[in-house]
Amino acid sequence: MTIKIACLPGDGIGPEVADSVVSVLEAVGKKYNQNFEVNKYLIGGCAIDETGEPLPQVTIDACKNADAVFLGAIGGPKWDDPNAKVRPEQGLLKLRAELGVFSNIRPLTVFPKLLDASPLKPELLENVDFVVVRELTGGIYFGEKYRGTDYATDECKYSEKEVERIAKVACEMAMQRGKRLTSVDKANVLETSRLWRDVVSRVVSENFPEIELEHQLVDSCAMKMIQNPSHFDVILTENMFGDILSDEASVLAGSMGLLASSSIGESSGLFEPIHGSAPDIAGQGIANPYASILSAAMMLRWLKLETEAKAVEDAVHEAIANNVLTQDLANNSSVTTQDATLAVIEYL
Ligand code: IPM
Ligand code: MG
C-alpha cells in the first residue's frame, strides 16, 4: 500500500528541514517496508511569488487527497510589508481551515543532554513533560478583521461546539497521561473565555470525572510555566494563547528547533515544526531538523505506524544523546542540517 504524503516545504529554512523529513521517510520506508510517496507543493511566500496566492488550489487539492501533510515553515522579510494584500501566513491559516484541523498538539520534552541549552536553572527542568493542546481553527485568528480610517478590529468568537470538541481531545490525552488538565483562559476579562471555562468544566465533569481539572488565567500561566514547569501535564487553550504559550514552552526545551506539532481534524492530519522560517539562517544548511523529524514521527503515529514512529523518536534521542547538535543547541557547533539528518538515519 502506498502512503501519500503532501510535502509543503514553504520558505526560509522550510525547504531544508523538509528535505530532512523526506530522507528520513525514505529510510523508514526501506527499513520497515513501507511505500511513502512524497510530493511537494507550494505554500506561503514562494507560492505568492509563483502564483500570486499564498495557498494555490493545487496545493489544497493535493493536501485533501493525501494521507497526511507535512509543512516546513512559511514567511520572511520579503513578504513582510504590513500593507501587503496577501501574506504567507494567510496560506497557512487557510490550509488549517480547509483541512479542518482544529486540534493542535505541541508536546514539550526536555532532553537531559540539553539542560544547559535552556536559560532556566537545570533543577527547574527536572521532570518537565507536558503537552499544549491548542484550538487551531477558531478564535481571534479567524474572526472578522476590519481596518477603518483610524481604527481596526479583530473579532474573537467561539461556539460551545468548538470548545467542546477540543476539550474532549485534551481530556482524552490527559487520560493517557497523568490525568491532570490545566485549562487556560482570560475569564476575568473575556466573554469567550467565560464560555470556554463553562464548557471545559462541563466536559470534564460529565465525561472525564477522573481528571483533575484546574483553570488558570493566561498571564499567570505564562509565569508559572517558567517558575514551576513540572507542574503541568496537559495544557488546554484557545488559538492565540496557545500560539504564545507554545513559543514560551520551547524555551524550556532549549530551542525552538526541537518542538514538533500535529494538527488533527476529522479526517486530516497536518504536521509541522513549531518554529518559523528563520530567514537569518536560511540557505546555510545549518537549521536544526529535529523538530521536523519529530513532527514526521507524530505523523507516522497518526498513520498508525507506531513502530516506525517510535523508531524515529528513539533515533532523534540517540543523535542528541551523542552530541549531534546544531548551532542553536551548542555554541560554535559545526553540525549541519545534513549531519543531523544522517545521524538520525544511521541510528534508525
Ligand atoms: C504557529 C505560527 C503561526 C500561528 C503563524 C505562522 C501564522 O506562529 O504555528 O505557531 O500563529 O499559528
Ligand atoms: Mg507560533
Please sum up the structure shown.
By secondary structure, the protein is an alpha/beta fold. It has helices at residues 14-32, 45-51, 57-65, 88-99, 160-176, 191-207, 218-227, 239-253, 290-302, 306-321, 337-347, and strands spanning 2-10, 35-40, 68-73, 103-109, 129-135, 145-147, 152-154, 180-185, 212-217, 234-237, 260-264, 269-273. Strand 6 and strand 7 form a beta hairpin.
* Helix residue percentage: 40-55%
Mean pLDDT: 97
| CATH-level-4 superfamily name of the largest domain | Isopropylmalate Dehydrogenase
Beta-strand percentage range:
15-25%
Uncertain stretches of 5 or more adjacent residues: none
Q: What's the total number of strands?
A: 12
Shape: globular
Q: What is the N-to-C succession of helices and strands?
A: EHEHHEHEEEEHEHEHEHEEHHH
CATH architecture annotation of the largest domain: 3-Layer(aba) Sandwich
Overall description:
It is a single chain. The protein is an alpha/beta fold. It folds into two domains: 1-104 and 256-348, 3-Layer(aba) Sandwich (Isopropylmalate Dehydrogenase); 119-253, Isopropylmalate Dehydrogenase. It is built from eleven helices and twelve strands. The chain has helices at residues 14-32, 45-51, 57-65, 88-99, 160-176, 191-207, 218-227, 239-253, 290-302, 306-321, 337-347, and strands at residues 2-10, 35-40, 68-73, 103-109, 129-135, 145-147, 152-154, 180-185, 212-217, 234-237, 260-264, 269-273. Helix 1 (14-32) packs across helix 9 (290-302), helix 5 (160-176) packs across helix 6 and helix 7 packs parallel to helix 8 (239-253). The longest helix is centred in the first third of the chain and has 19 residues, at 14-32. Bound molecules: 3-isopropylmalic acid and magnesium ion (MG). The site of 3-isopropylmalic acid has 4 residues, from helix 4.
